[in-house]
Amino acid sequence: METLGITFFRIMICMAVLLLVWLAIARKPIGGLNPFDFAISISIGSVMGAVIVDPNIALSSVVVAIIFLSLIQMLFSWLSLKWRLLNVAINSQPVVVVDNGQIIKANLRKVRIPVETLLQMLREKGVFDISQVELALWEPHCQLSVLRKPEAMPLTAAQLNLEVPPNRIMFPVIIEGELQAAVLQKMGFTPEQIREFREKHADKLADIFVAFMDRDRNMHIIKEDAQESDIFFCR
Question: CA torsion angle for 119, 121, 122, 128 (degrees, to 10)?
């Protein structure tokens, strides 16, 4: 039991340090890592794995190693922002895989994706007729960007010369009965207005799961006891 406790303690310390480092250096998703970021991540994972399975490795040395590797990553990211050539060298460039409805076979081989995968990703973009594609790019982070031909694109209000109302953006102002004062402040509410709102609706907050408010201060409330309407199901 003592060994398990020590192992658990070492895991928690390493994870805490790793989380702090990750928040400090960047919030990139896994798919957004370049080769150097990936190598650093693998190295940090190997260091953490070693300290977890080998109690003879000093915990302090591992913490220092994680911080040092993270500092290297931060320095490299800073240098890549300062020197474009370095950024180009470590980040692959977009590759044209479809041009004017024609699949570029040589470029598919270059990025090492089969034609079946390309067609699947096109379908995920809503493209079932490849002749409608003017340009498709294989992006550095393994994503497909698709530009349809003008005649295959949906009409927009600007093309029809229509006036449309501005977008209605809803902000969560109540989450599980808790009033989100910081959100209300960003929307222009004064501390006094927030306090009055909380006092006025104190008896109702507990019954609200989520409540949204737009910039005109119209609210949409989702209650805790919301149920499905059973419209789509036959009992």
Answer: 60
Between helix 2-25 and helix 59-82 the angle, nearest 10°, is 10
What is the residue-wise DSSP string for 41-56?
HHHHHHHHHHHHH-TT
pTM exceeds 0.70 for this model: no
C-alpha to C-alpha distance for 55 and 57, rounded to whole angstroms: 5
Q: What is the pLDDT of residue 44?
A: 78
**Residue 143 β-bridge partners:** none
End-to-end Cα, the chain, rounded Å: 53
Largest separation between any pair of C-alpha atoms in the chain:
74
Instruction: Give the strand order in the sheet containing 133-138.
Output: 102-103, 95-99, 133-138, 144-148
Grouped pLDDT means (10 residues each) for the chain, 235 residues: 70 78 62 68 78 75 81 79 71 87 92 92 93 92 90 85 87 92 92 89 87 91 78 55
Residue whose C-alpha is closest to residue 204's, from 174, 172, 171: 174
**How far apart are the C-alpha atoms of 146 and 153, rounded to whole Å?**
11
Paired tokens of 112: 């090492």
Q: Please return the burial class of 221, using the count of CB atoms within 10 Å of its CB with bins 0-12, 13-18 and 19+.
A: middle
Residues forming a β-bridge with 138? 95, 144
At 79, list the tokens: 């240098």
Question: In this structure, what DSSP letter does residue 93 have?
Answer: P
